[in-house]
C-alpha cells in the first residue's frame, strides 16, 4: 500500500516536471525539469522493482540514471557552446593550451 502511494506521488511529480519542461520560461528551467523527470523515472523504476520483488529492475534504473546524466551534460554543453565538439581548426592550439588569438 505504501509503495503504491509512493509510485502515485512520483507520477504526480513527473507530471509537474513535464509541465515545467513544456512551459519554461527559460531553457535552463526546461533542462532542469527534464533532468528532474529522468531522476523521478529512476526512482519510479526502483519503486516498481520493490513492488514486483524484482531486484534486476534496479540494474535498469542505474543504466537509465547514467544515460540521463550523460544526456543532460551533453545538452548543457550544446546550449553553452553551440556544439558538442570542436571543428578541428584550432586543434594544435588546444593541445598546446593556448588559442591562436594569443599568438
Any overview of this molecule?
With 103 residues, the protein is mostly helical. It has helices at residues 2-23, 27-52, 57-81, 91-96. The longest helix has 26 residues, at 27-52. The mean pLDDT is 86.
**Which structural class do you get from the secondary structure elements?**
mainly alpha
In total, the number of strands is: 0
- What's the rounded overall pLDDT mean? 86
Task: Spell out the helices and strands N to C.
Answer: HHHH
Overall geometry comes to flat
Beta-sheet strand percentage? under 5%
Descriptive terms for the model:
mainly alpha; flat
Q: Briefly, what is this?
A:
This protein is mostly helical and 103 residues long. It has helices at residues 2-23, 27-52, 57-81, 91-96.
Question: Which SSEs are present, and which pair or pack?
Answer:
Layout: H1 2-23, H2 27-52, H3 57-81, H4 91-96
Helix pairs in contact: 1-2, 2-3
Amino acid at each position: 500500500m505504501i509503495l503504491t502511494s509512493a509510485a502515485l506521488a512520483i507520477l504526480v511529480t513527473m507530471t509537474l516536471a513535464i509541465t515545467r519542461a513544456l512551459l519554461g520560461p527559460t531553457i535552463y528551467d526546461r533542462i532542469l525539469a527534464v533532468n528532474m523527470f529522468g531522476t523521478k523515472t529512476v526512482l519510479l523504476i526502483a519503486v516498481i522493482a520493490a513492488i514486483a520483488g524484482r531486484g534486476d529492475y534496479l540494474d535498469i534504473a542505474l543504466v537509465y540514471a547514467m544515460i540521463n546524466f550523460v544526456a543532460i551534460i551533453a545538452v548543457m554543453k550544446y546550449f553553452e557552446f553551440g556544439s558538442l565538439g570542436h571543428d578541428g581548426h584550432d586543434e594544435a592550439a588546444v593541445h598546446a593550451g593556448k588559442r591562436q588569438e594569443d599568438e
